[in-house]
Write a structure and sequence with these properties.
Number of helices: 1
CATH architecture: Sandwich
Strand content: 35-45%
Shape: elongated
Order of helices and strands: HEEEEEEEEEEEE
Number of domains: 1
CATH class: Mainly Beta
CATH superfamily: Immunoglobulins
Mean pLDDT: 80
Structural class: mainly beta
Number of strands: 12
Low-confidence stretches: 1-34
Strand order of the largest sheet: 1-2-3-10-6
Radius of gyration: 15 Å
Distance between the termini: 23 Å
Largest sheet: 5 strands, antiparallel
Length: 152
């Protein structure tokens, strides 16, 4: 049974990992003229119960070379079966985007941001069960995935 769960976890992780990321992982991608650099930080606290925050950076952060450019940003949380669980909200807010906005196809400029998740399932509004969850940041078609742990 342990092997089945391990295989499911590997399968779920591989479904979300972009093919151009190394097997060693890595949370930073830098783009050329057409794409944005992005960095996905580890959620904190981790493990958590019941809420967590997820730091991420788009572009070169505050010293951005093109501060007026908008990037399409989505952040989703999945269970190990690759089923969507939640869409975190933007904490604080910046520019023309208010805090509390779900991070789903948001147009953001390059900067440092923090997402907030209350640990609730999007469909049922119940707190999620203990276990491993994946969070996936996508910026202009580039994606980075990390894992988090809910501990009750």
């Amino acid at each position: 049974m342990k092997h089945l769960w391990g295989a499911l976890l590997v399968l779920a992780l591989s479904a979300f990992m972009p093919s151009h990321l190394s097997a060693q992982g890595g949370s930073t991608q830098t783009g050329g003229a057409r794409g944005a650099a992005l960095e996905l930080g580890q959620n904190y606290p981790n493990p958590f119960n019941p809420e967590t925050r997820i730091p991420f950076t788009i572009g070169d952060g505050p010293g951005c070379t093109d501060p007026s450019r908008l990037h399409r940003v989505s952040l989703r949380i999945y269970n190990v079966l690759a089923q969507p669980v939640a869409v975190p909200v933007l904490q604080g807010g910046t520019g023309n985007v208010a805090g509390g906005e779900p991070i789903e196809k948001l147009l953001l400029t390059c900067n440092q941001y923090t997402a907030y998740w209350d640990g609730r399932d999007l469909r049922t509004q119940q707190e999620v069960a203990s276990g491993v969850y994946l969070y996936r940041l996508e910026v202009d078609g580039k994606a980075v995935v990390k894992k988090m742990l809910v501990s009750k």
